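Lab notebook, design round three. We kept the backbone fixed and only want residue identities now. Task for the bench partner: fill in a sequence for the structure below.
Input C-alpha cells:
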C-alpha cells in the first residue's frame, strides 16, 4: 500500500500550520484532494503513530469537531477537548501561555474562534501545527471537503464554475482562495453591502489569474448562477452575528437557493451547503433534498479531507 511519500507536494506541509486556504499552493491543494479520495476509497492506509490533536472550540460545532475526532482515530491517534468551558482558556489564560504549554502535550491544535488574529497568535506561540477549524474570516477545512465533493461529481474541478449565493462570509472566503488555487471560476452572488472582504477578493483574484481560474462578485442571483456547475449557499447570519438575524433576513430577501434558481445553472449542476442549514431562508427544502443535492456527501467529505490534512501535517514522509 502506498505511503504519504506517493504525494510529493505534501512533503513540505509536515509541521506547518493551516490558517488560511491561501497557505497552500495549488499543487498541495490538489495533492490533499487526491490523498483524501484515496483514503476514502481505501486505496491507502496511513498510521500517524499515536499522535494527539487538541481541539479548542470557542463556537459550537457538530461536523468539524466529530470529523476531526474520527479522522484522528482512523490515523491511529486521538483528540482531546480543550474547549474554553473545560480549560483555563475560558478563564482568560493568555494565548501565549496556553499555546506554549499545549505544545508540550499534543501534536497539533485545531482551533475554532472569532478573530483570525487570535488564531494567528496561537500559531505564533505554538511549536506544533495549528489548524483553522473556522474563524470569522475563513473555513479552510470546509473548502477542501467542498472541492473534493465537486471533484467526485465531475472528475476534475479545473475550469468548472462554482457559484456561491449569500453572505460574503468565512465560507465564501475559503471557497474563493481554494477555488482560485484549483483553477475554478468562483462567482460570489450577494446583496450590496454583503460582499466578501475586499482584501480576500483582491488576493484570490490574483491567485485565480495565476492558476487559470477567476473570481467574480455579482449582485443578482440569476446572473450569479447561470450555467454554473455547483451552487453553494451558507447561513445569512454566522455565529457571532445572532443579533443581526432579523435585519439580515430582510437584506437577503430574494437570495434563497431554490429549485428555480438551480434550474438556471448547468443541467448537471450540484447543490452544496456547508451546514447547518435553515430551510426556507438561505435554501429551500426542495433544493436541499432534490436530486442535485450532494450536501450529505459534502458533510461526509469533511472527514476524508481532514484525515488527509492531518496525515500531511503529522506524518513523516
Ligand atoms: N460546516 C461546519 O463547519 O459545521 P459545524 O459548525 O457543525 O462544525
Ligand atoms: N458561516 C457559518 C459557517 C458555519 C459552519 C458560521 O460562521 O457560522
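Proposed sequence:
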Amino acid at each position: 500500500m502506498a505511503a504519504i511519500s506517493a504525494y510529493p507536494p505534501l512533503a513540505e506541509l509536515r509541521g506547518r500550520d493551516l490558517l488560511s486556504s491561501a497557505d497552500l499552493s495549488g499543487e498541495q491543494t490538489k495533492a490533499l484532494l487526491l490523498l483524501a479520495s484515496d483514503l476514502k476509497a481505501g486505496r491507502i492506509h496511513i498510521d500517524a503513530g499515536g499522535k494527539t490533536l487538541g481541539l479548542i472550540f470557542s463556537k459550537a460545532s457538530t461536523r468539524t469537531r466529530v470529523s476531526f475526532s474520527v479522522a484522528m482515530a482512523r490515523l491511529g491517534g486521538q483528540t482531546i477537548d480543550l474547549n474554553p468551558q473545560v480549560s483555563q482558556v475560558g478563564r482568560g489564560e493568555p494565548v501565549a501561555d496556553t499555546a506554549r504549554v499545549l505544545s508540550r502535550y499534543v501534536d497539533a491544535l485545531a482551533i475554532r474562534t472569532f478573530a483570525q488574529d487570535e488564531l494567528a497568535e496561537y500559531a505564533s506561540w505554538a511549536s506544533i501545527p495549528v489548524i483553522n477549524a473556522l474563524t470569522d474570516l475563513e473555513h479552510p477545512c470546509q473548502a477542501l471537503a467542498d472541492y473534493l465533493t465537486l471533484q467526485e461529481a465531475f472528475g476534475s474541478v479545473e475550469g468548472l464554475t462554482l457559484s456561491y449565493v449569500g453572505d460574503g462570509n468565512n465560507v465564501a472566503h475559503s471557497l474563493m482562495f481554494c477555488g482560485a488555487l484549483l483553477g475554478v471560476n468562483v462567482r460570489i452572488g450577494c446583496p450590496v453591502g454583503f460582499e466578501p472582504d475586499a482584501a480576500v477578493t483582491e488576493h484570490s483574484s490574483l491567485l485565480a489569474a495565476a492558476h487559470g481560474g477567476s473570481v467574480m462578485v455579482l449582485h443578482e442571483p440569476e446572473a450569479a448562477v447561470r450555467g454554473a456547475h455547483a451552487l453553494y449557499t451558507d447561513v445569512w447570519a454566522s455565529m457571532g452575528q445572532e443579533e443581526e438575524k432579523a435585519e439580515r433576513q430582510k437584506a437577503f430577501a430574494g437570495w434563497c437557493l431554490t429549485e428555480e434558481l438551480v434550474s438556471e445553472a448547468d443541467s448537471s449542476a450540484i447543490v452544496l451547503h456547508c451546514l447547518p442549514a435553515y430551510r426556507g431562508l438561505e435554501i429551500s427544502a426542495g433544493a436541499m433534498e432534490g436530486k442535485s443535492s450532494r450536501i450529505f456527501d459534502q458533510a461526509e467529505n469533511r472527514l476524508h479531507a481532514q484525515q488527509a490534512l492531518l496525515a500531511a501535517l503529522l506524518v513523516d514522509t
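Keep this in mind before ordering anything: The beta strands are 52-57, 78-81, 108-112, 130-132, 161-165, 185-189, 214-218, 230-233, 270-273.
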